[in-house]
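Hi R.,

Here's the chain you asked about this morning:
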Amino acid sequence: MNGNDIIFTVVAATLVILLLIAGVAIAFFIANKQRITQEVKIAQLLLDKEKELRKVQHEVQEQVMVNIGRELHDNIGQMLTYLNMQLEQQRYVNPASAQIFQGLGNIAKETYEEVRRLSKSLNSDVLENQGLLGTIDQEVSRMRQIDKYVVEWSYDGEPKLNKDQKVVVFRIFQEALNNIMKHSGAKNIKINMHSAPIFKFTVTDDGKGFNVSEMMASTKGAGLKNIVRRAELAKMTCKIDAENGKGATFTLEETLNN
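And the predicted structure, written out as tokens:
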């Protein structure tokens, strides 16, 4: 074998080795790309499944709310009506105690009206009939009747949200009020709803506040976590600003890519 043949053999062998290396690299690249694509598909399927589960959970929760509202209106409401009738009868049967029975009757009537308002607030269909603005306005009126809080309520019109979004906004509003009444010790509550161009809703109190990070990490933060999850379902963001001794603010805002 002469020198040229040796050079040709070396070059040919080198080319074969390079082609093999290139082939292995290409095969590895294709396999890796397919693996990544598959992982992305699986992640998307899991994400879609989680969204669907959360949607179903939300629908079940709303149905439970509706059922509770109906039970309050139909059963408890009827019982209170019957009680009031009995008290009215006792007023005439026992004239000497008429004033006492009248006072009890007034309490029964007020309780019935409160139950009726509560049952309406639990029924999401009310939002469709009265709008988010009207429904929140009713809740504000109910809060003002308690005479425990000074409630400042401002808005610029009915927001252009779909039914599910209205339900989520109202439920978050109810949860925020519930937190204020149970835990904050607040005296003043400010509620603002800005409808356009981007929906923004805030609830602020001057109560004792709390540490957001600590609360979210504890078992006591279930209500706050639920608020954030509800907001995500409605394609909104919920920001909770709070500090010990300085009250709290819940800000619900429509996302820009909605």
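Helices lie at 3-93, 98-122, 125-145, 163-184, 212-217, 222-233.

Let me know if you need anything else.
M.
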